[in-house]
Structures are given as C-alpha cells and as structure tokens.
Amino acid sequence: MTMRIQREIAVWLILLVLTLVLPLAAMAANDDCLGCHADTDTVGKEFRIDPVTFDTTAHAGIGCQECHASVTDKHPDDGATPSKANCQDCHDSISAEYSLSNHHGNATCNDCHNPHTARGATAVSGIDMNRQCAGCHGDLDMVLKHAEWLPQADLHIANLPCISCHTASQDNVITMYIIKPSLTGERQLATFDELKKQAGEKSIQSLIDRNEDNYISLAELRLFNLDSGNHALRLQGMITPEKVTHDFRTLDNRWDCTFCHASGPAARQTSFVSLAQEDGSYLRIAAEKGAVLDALYGTPDFYMVGATRSKMLDYIGMVIIAGGMVMPIGHGTLRFLTRKNRQNKEEK
C-alpha cells in the first residue's frame, strides 16, 4: 500500500471520527445548558428552551457554545451576558440574498426565525410558515389588499404559503395536511395529541398509511376520507416549496394563474402527506404519483383547474350535456320525420 493511499485513508478516518464525535460532544454540551434552560422556574419564561423541540433543529447539532461562545463554566454566577453569534456567520449567502429584498431594514433574522425552534421547510407546515408572515402582515389586511385583483383572495391566503408567491421559491409540490374543519368554516391543523387520540393504540401514521410502508397509495387516501371514524378530519392540500429563498420578490410568472391552476408540470404530480409529530415538527410521507388528480377521494380541499380533473365528474358532465341535447335534437328529428304528414294536413 503506497504512502499516498495510506494518507487518504487516514484523512477519511479522521473525517469519519469527527462526523461521529462532534455531534455527540455538542449534544453533551447542550444537555449541560438545557439542565437549567429547560426549566422555566430556573431561568424564567424568556430564556426557557424546549429541549424536545430544540433537539430537532439543525442548530442542536452544532452545539449551544457555537453561538454563545463567551459562556464559561462559571455561567451564570459570573454575571456576564452571554454573547450571541450573528446569523450571517453561517448563513452568509442567505444574508446577501436577503439584503437585496424589500424586507431588509424592516425585519431581522430573529424577527421571523427563533434559532431554538428553526427547522427546514419540509419539517414545518405551510400554515406555520404563514404565521411568521402574519406577525407583521395581518390576515384581514392581506385579504383585502389581494382582493383588489385576486378572486377568492381569502381562500388563496388560507391555502398557500406566502413564500410560494412572494419569493423565488423553487420545486413546488403538493403537501397535504390533516385538518379539523369547524362549524365556522375555519380550518385548523390537527395537533399531535388529537391525531394520537384518533389513532388509539396504533401509530398516527397508520391513520392514513395503513400498512405503514412509508408510501401512501390512492387507495389509502380514499380509505382515509371514506372512513366514518375520521368524520371530524379531512385532508387539505397546499402548494409548498421544496427550496425556500429570502429574496422576497414576486416573479412575473406568479401573476399568471396557470402557474398553479394548470395541469402538466411534474411538481403538480408530486404529493406528500405531512403528519404532526410530538416534537412540533412534521413528518412527510410520499404519496402515489398523481394523488392530487384524485380530488374527489384524495384531496377534497384542494382544487387546480385541469390538474384536478375527475373522470367521474367528466362522465356526469357528459350525461348532463347529452340529456340537455336530447330534447332539441329529438324534437327536431321528429319534426323532420313527420314533415310530409304536416304538409298533407295543411293542403287539406
């Protein structure tokens, strides 16, 4: 074995060890911090961190001291205020993108993102994404503003993450959530506790992924919606981005209704069901290709012109059209066939 190969193996072994050891070391350090910061009575509500939620964030893997480097073993008895890292230290490309947006100067990173709860786009719901926007942009104000040009503005705002239209987000897919409609028509996400109660001794996943193979077929979607035991629950579909951006601008194609309301694009064929988890995140499970096309039984709270065509509705429509044509065509045909008889009567 040559020296060069030996060096390469040694480098890979070091990298492997670092990959395994550093997160474990960070988690151990996190436990020390959370020993106090998980307790409201000890640190107060302002500085309390939910350890279950924090564990699911990307920041948990790098460790508390990466962002709070000035904290020593004497904290908090030393009375020193812990330092805070700037988000730009790690997210420089996002910071550069955001600096060119309309939001820059009006909101800082922490105004929208809590570093102790921040998760990736696929681990949160579209509705949770909108809650961040609603902190500054009131729902009613936005509905009225959009209603100046957008039909059914209230439905669009309730069923679309703002960033799907107001950023250059990419790779949009259909994500379905289990909701609980209310008597007032308001749709709320079913919580983990509510889904757990509904599932009983089984897992939440089994409510819709009956064989728990991490793949949801059209048949399983239909069974969920037709199951009388799920009468208080239903699916709501949203167009959510796989890649989020922080440029906050509305691209020209977002003004075009066919960006969403058209069939054909591969993204419109890609669907997931996203289920609430105990730690506050969401678990996505892939659904059979074309699930959104099965609107009657699969996604009753999602509509896309063209993309959600239902064969059943096509047949019903054809029957209605045919029935409407029977009378004039039948009447005209009958008059044509009996025209000689009418002529003879007129001559007499």
Can you describe what's shown?
By secondary structure, the chain is an alpha+beta fold. It folds into 2 domains: 3-85, no CATH class; 121-311, no CATH class. Helices cover 41% and strands 10% of the residues. The protein is built from 14 helices and 5 strands. The chain has helices at 3-37, 40-43, 51-54, 64-67, 92-99, 109-112, 126-134, 139-146, 153-159, 162-166, 192-199, 218-226, 311-337, 339-347, and strands at residues 170-181, 187-189, 234-243, 271-276, 282-286. Strands 1, 2, 3, 4 and 5 form a 5-stranded mixed beta sheet that branches.
Keywords:
348 residues; alpha+beta; 5-stranded mixed beta sheet; 10% strand; elongated
Could you outline the blueprint of secondary structure elements for this entry?
Layout: H1 3-37, H2 40-43, H3 51-54, H4 64-67, H5 92-99, H6 109-112, H7 126-134, H8 139-146, H9 153-159, H10 162-166, E1 170-181, E2 187-189, H11 192-199, H12 218-226, E3 234-243, E4 271-276, E5 282-286, H13 311-337, H14 339-347
Offer a quick outline of the entry.
This protein has helices spanning 3-37, 40-43, 51-54, 64-67, 92-99, 109-112, 126-134, 139-146, 153-159, 162-166, 192-199, 218-226, 311-337, 339-347, and strands spanning 170-181, 187-189, 234-243, 271-276, 282-286.
